[in-house]
């Protein structure tokens, strides 16, 4: 084969390689418009433009999501950062590393069964309260906020925590509960239907925390740095897009992921999250947020180890994405 032919073959193979698509499996802890930037990245083609083909699976719960990640059932997990601390405390040899933050506040709202235009936190005392899963971020943040208002959730409430995450809305509707923590759009749907009244936001009350973060095993990160970087680039582009567009525009884009919810309801819910700053504006998980997370876990009695920030957080990919 001539030198010219070899050169042409090399250029052809290089071009094919540069246009190749890398498949990445992502496990999301639940399907929620709280994760609107992720669906924007998918629908606007930001992952595709980075050469990534995303296989998105909803794994319904922190435990199952982390099992999928640690057993190689997923390359990347979108889940609360607290799960990486739980894995670390189990002496894992292959840590789950947080590399890109998606949401930076709690995403739940306090919903009362009856209208309460003059709601005070004191009203919760002696009520039947349907809480979230023990050890999960919604429950820990909920307890943290209640304690800030002088309420001991385990002594001042009739607290129930025995309902699976996916069944909480139905249990509240049909059960003898006075209050519940709900994500959007369920909270707004209940309010519109007259089956609930949104009286407070846990996100506004608790401040910034690394509530939902993309993480991957240290081994995957070491072996696939370019893929992780491209993934983070796409996430950041989506975060910028969400900041620059209206709630209605965002709702139109992500509607395919919530076909059973009307556009106006999606718009109202997204606007709530935008107004309280729930969507992270960049993928960097900073040290102050990590400290807030540990404080909340410690207050709930769920912090298994005082894990240093540098042990489980890698901001290099996020910083690179922002600098481009």
UniProtKB/TrEMBL annotation:
Where does this one sit in the cell?
Periplasm
User: Which SUPFAM superfamilies does this entry report, sorted A to Z?
Assistant: Periplasmic binding protein-like II (SSF53850)
Q: Which domain of life is it from?
A: Bacteria
Tell me the Pfam families matching this sequence.
NMT1_2
Which residues constitute the signal peptide according to the record?
A: 1-20
Q: What is its main location?
A: periplasm
Q: Which family does it belong to?
A: Belongs to the bacterial solute-binding protein SsuA/TauA family.
Q: Which PANTHER family match?
A: ALIPHATIC SULFONATES-BINDING PROTEIN-RELATED, TAURINE-BINDING PERIPLASMIC PROTEIN
Q: What is this protein called?
A: ABC transporter substrate-binding protein
């Amino acid at each position: 084969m001539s030198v010219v032919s070899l050169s042409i073959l090399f250029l052809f193979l290089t071009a094919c390689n540069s246009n190749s698509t890398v498949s990445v499996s992502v496990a999301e802890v639940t399907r929620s418009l709280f994760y609107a930037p992720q669906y924007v990245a998918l629908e606007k083609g930001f992952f595709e433009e980075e050469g990534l083909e995303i296989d998105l699976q909803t794994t319904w719960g922190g435990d199952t999501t982390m099992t999928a990640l640690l057993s190689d059932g997923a390359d990347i997990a979108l889940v609360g950062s607290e799960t990486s601390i739980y894995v670390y405390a189990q002496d894992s040899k292959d840590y789950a590393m947080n590399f890109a933050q998606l949401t930076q506040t709690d995403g739940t709202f306090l919903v009362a069964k009856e209208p309460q235009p003059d709601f005070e936190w004191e009203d919760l005392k002696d009520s039947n309260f349907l809480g979230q899963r023990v050890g999960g971020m919604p429950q820990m943040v909920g307890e943290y906020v209640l304690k800030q208002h002088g309420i001991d959730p385990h002594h001042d409430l009739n607290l129930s925590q025995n309902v699976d995450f996916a069944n909480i809305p139905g249990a509240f509707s049909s059960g003898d509960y006075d209050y519940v923590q709900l994500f959007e759009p369920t909270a707004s749907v209940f309010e519109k239907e007259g089956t609930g009244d949104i009286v407070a936001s846990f996100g506004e009350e608790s401040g910034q925390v690394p509530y939902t973060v993309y993480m991957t095993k240290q081994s995957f990160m070491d072996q696939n740095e370019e893929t992780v970087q491209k993934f983070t680039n796409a996430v950041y582009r989506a975060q910028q897009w969400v900041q620059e567009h209206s709630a209605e525009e965002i709702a139109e884009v992500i509607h395919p992921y919530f076909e059973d919810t009307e556009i106006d309801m999606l718009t109202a819910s997204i606007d709530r999250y935008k107004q309280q700053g729930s969507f992270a504006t960049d993928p960097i998980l900073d040290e102050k947020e990590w400290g807030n997370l540990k404080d909340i876990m410690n207050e709930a009695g769920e912090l298994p180890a005082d894990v240093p920030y540098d042990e489980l957080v890698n901001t290099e990919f996020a910083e690179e994405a922002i600098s481009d």
